[in-house]
Design goal:
It is built from ten helices and eight strands. By secondary structure, it is of the alpha/beta class. Strands 1, 2, 3, 4, 5, 6, 7 and 8 form an eight-stranded mixed sheet that branches. Helix 1 packs across helix 2 and helix 1 packs parallel to helix 4. The longest helix has 22 residues.
Length: 263
């Protein structure tokens, strides 16, 4: 699937999720229903700064729990959606810090700003932009966060280069994302639904870590791993008759990982 087409599909699907969440007034249920995949992010319920209206159920981890955010930090959240991780980061940085969310979907930026206005935060900003060309000045960020978004980016090398550019020397990233191990069935690889559901765009785990290291990051390590199990019905929806006839015992796995790396 070509890059332009991928971005159009992602913008359309996540725009729908943002609109549905506004129409029904719900949190995670809307995102999960629209994608037909219930992502496996851990519960945010007991985390300080959690805003249910900003949680659309699209994450696959809780990167703020491992990010080492400090009072006064400048934090950047990539693919910030309705602001879930942004608002949690803001509760940690305090009023002396700054938290910026970047998202390429206008409907998500609108939803995030609505949530920001309700909360009255003065040190939070949401910017429309793409991760491969971040609207952020070089060496101005202490911590980069992202939650199940980098797998949606077609040019991941460019994305990690941009992350490296905006981080201050000695600063770090903490990203939750989806990776695979083994060979994914062709039907899943080609499915647009699996792409927007964060599966088809996922890299091999080893390739993902190596890519971070190749962009210049040091001490890249996985700090949390969780397996994602797809239902039999969902698999059968996206694999070929030949694959179904051969059986569903494929030698591959899908995992949520949280990764840290230092500039």
């Amino acid at each position: 699937m070509e890059e332009k087409k991928i971005k159009e599909i992602v913008k359309e699907k996540y725009g729908e999720i943002a609109k549905e969440s506004s129409d029904c007034g719900c949190g995670c249920c809307c995102g999960s229903q629209t994608l037909e995949i219930n992502m496996i992010g851990d519960s945010y319920d007991k985390i300080r700064g959690y805003v249910p209206d900003a949680d659309l159920g699209l994450g696959c981890g809780v990167p703020t729990e491992y990010a080492g955010i400090r009072d006064g930090d400048t934090v950047l959240d990539l693919g910030s959606g309705a602001g879930n991780d942004v608002f949690i980061a803001c509760s940690i940085t305090g009023e002396s810090g700054e938290v910026i969310g970047v998202d390429m979907t206008e409907a998500m930026i609108k939803k995030a700003n609505e949530n920001k206005e309700k909360l009255g935060y003065k040190n939070v900003e949401f910017r429309l932009g793409e991760i491969e060309n971040l609207p952020i000045e070089s060496e101005t960020v202490d911590v980069v966060l992202s939650n199940c978004v980098l797998n949606l980016v077609p040019d991941k090398e460019r994305a990690f280069s941009e992350i490296f550019r905006v981080l201050k020397p000695g600063a770090h990233l903490c990203i939750s994302d989806v990776v695979i191990q083994g060979e994914m069935p062709e039907g899943l690889q080609k499915s647009a639904e699996m792409y927007t559901g964060c599966i088809a765009g996922a890299l091999q785990q080893e390739q993902y870590i190596n890519l971070i290291k190749e962009r210049g990051f040091k001490n890249a390590e996985i700090v949390q791993t969780k397996e994602i199990l797809l239902s039999r019905a969902l698999l059968l929806k996206h694999i070929s008759p030949e694959e179904a006839k051969a059986g569903l015992n494929y030698n591959f796995g899908i995992y949520s990982i949280t990764v840290k790396g230092k500039k």
